[in-house]
Amino acid sequence: MRILHLTDTHLYGDRDARHYDRIDTTAALRGLLARLEGLADIDAVVHTGDASEDGTAESYRLLHEILDPFAAALDAPLAIVMGNHDVSAVYGEAVAPGERTAPSQDRVVPLAGGARVVVLDSSVPGAGYGHLDPEQLDWLRGVLAEPAPGGTVLAIHHPPLVAATPLLRGLDLDGLDELAAGLGGSDVRIVLSGHYHHEMTGEIAGIPVHVAPGITNVVDPVGAGADEQSLALSGVSLVELGEGAPRVVSSVFPNAGDTLADAERPVYRFTPDQVAQILEAAGR
């Protein structure tokens, strides 16, 4: 099974809007997909959240205007996860049942060969961190109690991993022990996430976790020192599931939506004081 893993498109309903006053997120997504021409044998396209930046119905219609024909050309189901910038209720109203993806919230997307993608909504209205309610964990345990013949892929925006930077650690997923208890002994082959905007791997309950690099920008978790830095890049991952451990490869390209001539200048660079202000507004 081959899964194309996309994340963090941050689309706007206003197509003239720019992320951090710089990135044309629609152009970034279209440009990345153009680089994938010729890709074949894809069994699912999974977008792990922050599909929208402003949570508008227009942004979600734009998302499907772009991704529906792309997934259809691959003859692959499309699964969309809700992230902290998304508004689940608006997405559910904007995307009519019967289209290529089900309308928001926790759900199961069937794949060929008896496999499935289980989608969890970890968003918290008005906040940047992630949380799963006890009812969601009960629902997940109920789904996983009946294994899928082809195995399960769990998709959740906030990674079930301790973050690599102070900013992201203040905006990560809580309740990891409770989630691990629900995943232990299940048929989940891999957990796919976004949110961190940089590639990262780890595990929960012995299950591999992969975080794909962002499409709207890519965070630099190594070279920024005490600051937080993001670069004008776009990334994508390809996940292959077969015998043995999953195989995951990622590519990162220059951002096709960058409107600044100096592409090497960071999209943002936050000082520790600025990070503290962000966490006060959006953290726990």
Tell me the distance between the termini. 37 Å
Name the strands of the widest sheet in spatial order. Answer: 4-5-6-7-9-8
Largest sheet: 6 strands, mixed
The CATH architecture designation is 4-Layer Sandwich
- What is the highest CATH level, the class? Alpha Beta
How big a fraction of the residues is strand? 15-25%
The amount of helix comes to 10-25%
CATH topology: Purple Acid Phosphatase, chain A, domain 2
Shape verdict: globular
Spans with pLDDT under 50 lasting ≥5 residues?
Answer: 100-104
Structural class: alpha/beta
Number of helices: 7
What is the helix/strand order? EHEHEHEEHEHHEEEEEEEEH
CA radius of gyration is 18 Å
Q: Number of folding domains?
A: 1
Q: How would you state the average pLDDT, rounded?
A: 95
| Structure summary, number of beta strands | 14
User: CATH-wise, what's the superfamily?
Assistant: Metallo-dependent phosphatases
